[in-house]
Write a structure and sequence with these properties.
This protein is α/β, with parallel strands linked by helices. It is about 50% helix and about 10% strand. It has 3 domains: about 5-70; about 85-160, Glutaredoxin (3-Layer(aba) Sandwich), CATH 3.40.30; about 170-285, Glutathione S-transferase Yfyf (Class Pi), Chain A, domain 2, CATH 1.20.1050.10. It has helices spanning about 5-15, 50-60, 90-105, 120-130, 150-160, 170-185, 185-190, 190-200, 200-225, 240-255, 260-270, 275-280; strands at about 25-30, 45, 70, 85, 110, 135-140, 145. Strands 5-4-6-7 form a 4-stranded mixed β-sheet. A 3-stranded mixed β-sheet has the order 1-2-3, with no helix packed on it. The structure holds glutathione.
Length: about 300
């Protein structure tokens, strides 16, 4: 078809999105559906499941040339794809998700995205998937999910394997209490993007991070005295452990005084011996940076 302003724009847009789309997904321009006054070009998106196609189209519709984009139908059977996790090795929230899949013995694929290293253009593309621009994002069952805790809940509800939330409601609430304590009481404050808004001075940033980490771990230490067994709550791995392990690893890296939190450290050390945490450890990933990397 002749190149119009819309087709060129849409083609560029798709090229940009290649880093987020599975390489096997074929996207081609097929015709100009002149019978449809509202659309000036058509795309065929194949080699991916119907749900994935819908997600892709939702994504493409965000583009200014959106009214010019539509999909041709494909007779292909929906294909079952591995979930894809966008994140980076040392992101504690990404580790939560890696460990959830590993605890379920489920296969998934990691794709590297680090907001701290991304170019402005990459950030702008990524913001279409998560307007906060943060990782992790999980592409699963045709959805793009952001926010690690709902992602963990989704995995628990849909992926077969050992359960990660206890049956008993009281224990389940304890698990969620620990998850929330870490997820909203500690992790956001240690985020370098937050510390950098607090001060330009790296020493003051570190002071800020350590203050909030130690405040949160003081609370966690107290909660764990009431809930722990071999794990954070009882003796089985739960969502609480999926949050605790990455948090303890990050706390040490950010310079907290870990000797103040012996119970947290004991549970952390014991959990690190287990396969789901060993396999998904940040020092053991395809994109593991060298030790001196700050983030
Ligand atoms: N509540 C979010 C927090 C996500 C988050 O803070 N991710 C960090 C990496 S662990 C990030 O992407 N930071 C970059 C930024 O804040 O710009 C979640 O649980 O997914």
């Amino acid at each position: 078809m002749p190149a119009t302003k819309e087709t060129v724009e849409a083609q560029n847009f798709i090229t940009q999105f290649r880093c987020l789309i599975s390489p096997e997904v074929a996207i081609t321009f097929v015709s100009s559906p002149s019978t449809r006054p509202y659309a000036s070009l058509a795309l065929s998106i194949t080699n991916c499941s119907f749900k994935m196609r819908v997600s892709l189209l939702c994504l493409l519709r965000l583009h200014p040339a959106a009214t010019a984009i539509m999909a041709s139908s494909s007779s292909k059977e929906p294909s079952v794809k591995k979930p894809v996790l966008y994140g980076y090795a040392k992101s504690s929230c990404s580790w939560r998700v890696r460990a959830a899949f590993a605890a379920k013995n489920a296969d998934f694929e990691c794709r590297y995205f680090n907001p701290y290293e991304a170019t402005a253009e990459e950030k702008a593309q990524f913001a279409l998937l998560n307007p906060l621009g943060q990782v992790p994002i999980l592409m699963i069952d045709g959805h793009y999910l952001s926010q690690s805790v709902p992602i963990l809940e989704y995995i628990e509800e849909t992926v077969p394997g050992p359960r990660l939330l206890p049956k008993e409601p009281g224990q389940r609430a304890q698990v969620r209490e620990i998850v929330e304590l870490i997820n909203s009481g500690i992790q956001p404050f240690q985020n370098p993007s937050v510390a950098q808004r607090h001060s330009d001075d790296p020493n003051k940033q570190k002071e800020w991070q350590v203050y909030w980490i130690e405040k949160g771990l003081t609370a966690l230490e107290a909660v764990l005295t009431k809930t722990h067994g071999k794990c954070s709550v009882g003796d089985e791995i739960t969502l609480a452990d999926l949050c605790l392990v990455p948090q303890l690893f990050a706390s040490r890296r950010f310079g907290a005084n870990m000797t103040k939190f012996p119970l947290c450290v004991k549970i952390f050390d014991d959990l690190l011996e287990l396969e789901p945490f060993r396999k998904t450890h940040p020092n053991n990933q395809a994109d593991t940076p060298d030790e001196s990397a700050p983030i």
